[in-house]
Specification:
alpha+beta; Rossmann fold; OB fold (Dihydrolipoamide Acetyltransferase, E2P); five-stranded antiparallel beta sheet; 22 strands; binds adenosine-5'-diphosphate; binds magnesium ion; ABC_transporter-like_ATP-bd; molybdenum; molybdate ion transmembrane transporter activity
Length: 364
C-alpha cells in the first residue's frame, strides 16, 4: 500500500508545493493554521485541482497532469471526515450509515454491523443525529465514510470541534480504525498530542511546503519542525506489561526501557504511543541518590543543540532516543558532550486522552 502525492498549486496569495509518499497506517499532515493542510486534502479528494500534479494510490492513478489524467471525485473512492460531522438530520444513524453505502463501488468491504461495532455506535443506530454528542456524531461520520469502501480515508481536523472529554472518548476508536480496518488514513491536525498518539508517519507543512517528514518519533523530537517548539519530545511505542493495583501503577515496556505510570485502564498487551515531552526529562551524570530507581533510564548523549536559553539534549536509551530540555547553564554545569553517559529521569509523561482517569498529563 503506498500513497504518492506530488502537487503544485499557485493561488494569487498562496503557493503550495508538496510531495510525500506514505504507506499503510496513519499519516499525519501536521502544521500551523494556514500552512496548506486542507488544500492538500482537497487536492487528494479531487475537490480542487493543481496546476501540476500526480496522485497515485496503490497503483491507481487519480491524477497525472503530465498525462492528462484527472479522475472525477465520485470515482476516486476517497472517504472524507471533516471537523463537523455533516450528518443528515432527518435520518436515523442507521439510515445515515446506509447513505454511505449508496456510494460504495464493487462488493466486499465491512458490513454495517461490523462498522457499528468497530466504532461503538451499535447502541445508537435508531437515534437521530440531534440527540448525539459531538463525539458520537463524529463516529457516525467515520462509519458512513467507511461504508462507502474507500481506498483511502481523509480526516481533516476531525477532533478540533470537540471538547477534551469528547476527544478522549473518540481517540481509541481512531486507533482501532488505524490498527484494524487496514485502510490508509491521511489525518490533518495541528495538535502535537493527537499526532503523537495516532500517527505512524508525519509530514510537517509550513507555508505550503514540506518542512520535514518521517516516522512519528523522529519528527516529534525536532523542535525546529514543531510549530510550538516547547512541545517537542520523544514518542515511544510502549506495551502494557502489567498492573500493580496495590502500588497503583501500570508497568510499560518499550524501546527506551521500562516505565511505570499511574494505573491505566488498559489490558496487558495493549500498545500505545507515549509522549515524553523534553521539558519533563531531567538528566544526571550519576545515578540519582535518594530517588527511586523507577523511571530512571541510563543512556548516552548523542546530540546537543542550543536553542535560545535552552539546550536540547538527545540521549540514546536502549533502542530509543529521548529528548531532554535543559537550561544552557545546567548543560554546562553537567559538562555534557557527545558520548557522555547520563541518567534520564522521566518526571512525567503526557498521556493524551482516554488513558488515565482524567487523561492529560500524569506525574510519575
Ligand atoms: P490549513 O488547512 O493548513 O489551515 P489551508 O490549506 O486551508 O490551510 O490554507 C492555506 C492558504 O490558502 C491560506 O493562506 C488560505 O488563506 C488560502 N486559501 C485556502 N482556501 C482558499 C481558496 N479557496 N482561495 C484562495 N485562497 C485560499
Ligand atoms: Mg485546514
Amino acid at each position: 500500500m503506498t500513497i504518492e502525492i506530488d502537487v503544485a498549486l499557485h493561488r494569487r496569495t498562496f503557493a503550495l508545493e508538496v510531495a510525500f509518499t506514505a504507506g499503510a497506517g496513519l499519516t499525519a499532515l501536521f502544521g500551523r493554521s494556514g500552512s496548506g493542510k486542507t488544500t492538500v486534502i482537497d487536492l487528494i479528494a479531487g475537490l480542487s485541482h493543481p496546476q501540476r500534479g500526480r496522485i497515485v494510490i496503490d497503483g491507481t492513478v487519480l491524477l497525472d497532469t503530465a498525462q492528462g489524467v484527472r479522475m472525477p471525485v465520485h470515482r476516486r473512492r476517497i472517504g472524507c471526515v471533516f471537523q463537523e460531522a455533516r450528518l443528515l438530520p432527518h435520518l436515523s444513524v442507521r439510515q445515515n450509515l446506509r447513505f454511505g453505502r449508496l456510494f460504495a463501488r464493487g462488493s466486499g468491504g465491512p458490513s454495517l454491523d461490523a462498522v457499528a461495532d468497530l466504532l461503538g455506535i451499535a447502541p445508537l443506530l435508531e437515534r437521530r443525529p440531534a440527540g448525539l454528542s459531538g463525539g458520537e456524531r463524529q463516529r457516525v461520520a467515520i462509519g458512513r465514510a467507511l461504508l462507502a469502501r474507500p481506498r483511502l480515508l481523509l480526516m481533516d481536523e476531525p477532533l478540533s470541534a470537540l471538547d477534551e472529554a469528547r476527544k478522549r472518548e473518540i481517540l481509541p476508536y481512531i486507533e482501532r480504525l488505524r490498527d484494524e480496518a487496514g485502510l490508509p488514513i491521511v489525518y490533518v491536525s495541528h495538535s502535537v498530542a493527537e499526532v503523537a498518539r495516532l500517527a505512524s508517519t508525519v509530514v510537517v507543512l509550513d507555508g505550503g511546503r514540506v518542512a520535514g517528514q518521517g516516522p512519528v518519533d523522529a519528527v516529534m523530537r525536532r523542535a525546529d519542525l514543531i510549530p510550538d517548539a516547547a512541545e517537542a519530545g520523544s514518542v515511544l511505542a510502549m506495551t502494557v506489561a502489567g498492573h500493580d493495583d496495590t502500588a497503583g501503577l501500570t508497568r510499560l515496556t518499550g524501546p527506551a526501557g521500562p516505565l511505570s505510570v499511574p494505573l491505566l485502564a488498559l489490558p496487558v498487551g495493549r500498545r500505545l504511543n507515549l509522549r515524553l515531552p523534553a521539558r519533563d526529562v531531567l538528566l544526571a551524570t550519576e545515578a540519582p541518590q535518594g530517588l527511586s530507581a523507577r523511571n530512571v533510564l541510563p543512556g548516552r548523549v548523542v546530540g546537543l543543540r542550543e536553542e535560545g536559553a535552552a539546550c536540547l539534549v538527545e540521549v540514546a536509551c536502549g533502542a530509543a532516543i529521548l529528548l531532554a530540555r535543559l537550561t544552557r547553564a545546567s548543560a554546562r554545569d553537567l559538562g555534557l558532550t557527545e558520548g557522555s553517559p547520563v541518567h534520564a529521569i522521566v518526571k512525567s509523561v503526557a498521556l493524551d486522552a482516554g488513558l488515565g482517569p482524567g487523561g492529560g498529563r500524569l506525574e510519575i
